[in-house]
Amino acid sequence: MNTPDTPRPVSRHPMVEAWVNFRRNWAALFGLVVLSLIVLAAILGPVLYPTDPFDMVWAPFSPPGAQGFLLGTDYLGRDLMAMMLNGARVSLMIGGAAALVSIVIGITIGAVAGFFGGLVEEVLMRFTEFFQVLPTLLFSMVIVALFGASLPMITLAIGVVSWTAVARITRAEFLRLKELEFVLASRAVGSTKFRLIFRVILPNAAPPIIVQSALMVGSAILFEAGLSFLGLTDPNVVSWGQIIGSNRLYILDASYTVTLPGLAIFITVLSISLIGDGLNDALNPKIRQR
Amino acid sequence: MALLQNLLIRSFYAAVLLLAVLILNFSLMHLAPGDVADTIAQSAGGADPEMLAQIRAEYGLDQPFLVQLGRYIGGVLQFDLGYSYFYNRPVTDLILERLPATLLLVFTAQIFALVLGVFLGAMSAQKPQGWLSHLVTFISLFGYSAPVFWTGILLLIAFSLNLHWFPVAGMRDVTVEGGFWVQALDIARHLVLPMITLASIFIALYSRLARATMMEVLQSDFVRTAHAKGLPMRHVVYRHALSNAMSPVVTLAGLQFSAVISGAVLVEAVFSWPGLGTLAFQSIIARDTPTILGILFFSALVVIVGNLLTDQVLRMMDPRIRGRSA
């Protein structure tokens, strides 16, 4: 019962409230701005700066600034600026897509395990444990080596090996939530299992999964960089890791061809981690009360 | 007694996991386009279909899937992981030759990261707003975000190429002659940079967790009691609080073994460290499937043994876990 003289707290949509909290965190905002700039550069860069990243444009090892090449040229005389801009597309795209694959697998396995419990849970969690035992990078190297280094295969190879953390978090949330009253109520009015899992419980389990997903994008970008550093990448595209891998024998002649792409990866992943930390603080009710 | 029983149960799980890895290995080999017969034919300079069929019959490749799987597992039980047609040597020999280098790198990096991470975390937990605490935040952000091979190359440029403090690549210098200690010192000099590079990822993780648990433990009643008894600050922090804050960090470290091996592959590539990672890299370039799968099996073995060891260490360290069964 509401008496008119006690003011009701203004109720806002939880996402609005999360944004209000997120906005207070300057580090997270900084990460968001930097990441937006990088994404913008990846989308517009190759259009505004149409030099072919595979073309030999000038003498090899020209330092940054020489002859109007802002970032210089690499060991084959290719324009590093063009390589970086085109590389941004591949690195971000594969990072995002691979993270999406692992999030979908992880949520499905974690949700089913947590919701059904019993033997289903036992089997699925043993399956998860099995994947945790295999060193992820080696496993995906094997997949790429056996089935070919096309971009979709690389995306799949990264996604298939890195879903275990998402599955564990999702399962833990489902175990916590599934006996709560709102779920029982929904069950009592006859909701289907599918509806219970995806419409009733999952939205309430979202905060920790969202935070983990943000971090997954960062680690997928690092993962792709590692694979392409080792040369396990589509030879017809440029990515940041691949620039470092192909130039690493020439660090004495042109260290910038290695340090600059690495810096790009570092800044991208750093801004994603800052956003992840901000999301964690914004979505975590315990911290919010402080 | 409980310790031993637990070890037995754990070992049984470990064996089941390894069997699963073997089945996965074999299925991957089976699914991948091309087989051993193709590889042999290729190295012989091509073969007609008849000869291919002959090779397949000779190696049992025409048998049903399950029969072949049984043979593969039987072979592994006798330490036979197949034959590398690229190196012309048994895979087991190749791996055992490279394993010590990887184990040395992986374990020293883990221990270094644990010691430094816990130390940094414990120090900074006492002053959450102090400069050390900010340093821990900075280190953990760097460790999370920097690609490990890039960190390695930066250290290489700074300390090997410019300052000449450490050798550039490899594990030992062939020109160094001398007794055991001279050789050990030579290996240690080569080990420093790869170890620090690999540890950089995990120092981040451990110091963060150590700081969080230490801050929690320092607020607990028994620490207040220890203070009230008049024990010196250092004694309270490093004897009472730290031994209680250690077990979550060790648990986390145990879960990281597979990540450490993944990192080691990249670090080995940067520093030409002659371990399993370098072998994996070379055999992937050479499309040497038996060797690649053998390495995957062995690295899973290292992870499982690492997990078992961590579990035992935890049980010895923390009486609260000892009673619990697996």
TrEMBL record, chain A:
GO biological process, one term: protein transport
Subcellular location: Cell membrane
Name of the protein in question: ABC transporter permease
UniProt key word Thylakoid: no
Organism: Pseudaestuariivita atlantica
Topology of the protein relative to the lipid bilayer: Multi-pass membrane protein
Stated family: Belongs to the binding-protein-dependent transport system permease family.
A Pfam entry, by short name: OppC_N
UniProt superkingdom: Bacteria
Family matches, as CDD domains: TM_PBP2
Chain ranges passing through the membrane: 26-49, 90-117, 137-166, 196-223, 258-280
InterPro entries membership: BP-dependent_transpt_permease (IPR050366), MetI-like (IPR000515), MetI-like_sf (IPR035906), OppC_N (IPR025966)
Keywords carried by this UniProt record: Cell membrane, Membrane, Peptide transport, Protein transport, Transmembrane, Transmembrane helix, Transport
Major subcellular location class: membrane
ABC transmembrane type-1 domain: residues covered: 88-276
Any single GO CC term annotated in Swiss-Prot or TrEMBL for this entry: plasma membrane
Keyword Transferase: no
UniProtKB/TrEMBL annotation, chain B:
Pfam family membership, one: BPD_transp_1
Domain ABC transmembrane type-1 positions: 99-314
Keywords associated with the record: Cell membrane, Membrane, Transmembrane, Transmembrane helix, Transport
Coiled coil: none
Membrane topology according to the record: Multi-pass membrane protein
Cellular component, GO annotation: plasma membrane
Localization annotation: Cell membrane
Keyword Ubl conjugation: no
Transmembrane segments: 12-32, 101-123, 135-161, 187-206, 249-271, 291-310
Keyword Flavoprotein: no
GO biological process: transmembrane transport
Family: Belongs to the binding-protein-dependent transport system permease family.
PANTHER family recorded: ABC TRANSPORTER PERMEASE PROTEIN (PTHR43163:SF9), DIPEPTIDE TRANSPORT SYSTEM PERMEASE PROTEIN DPPB-RELATED (PTHR43163)
Record protein name field: ABC transporter permease
Source organism: Pseudaestuariivita atlantica
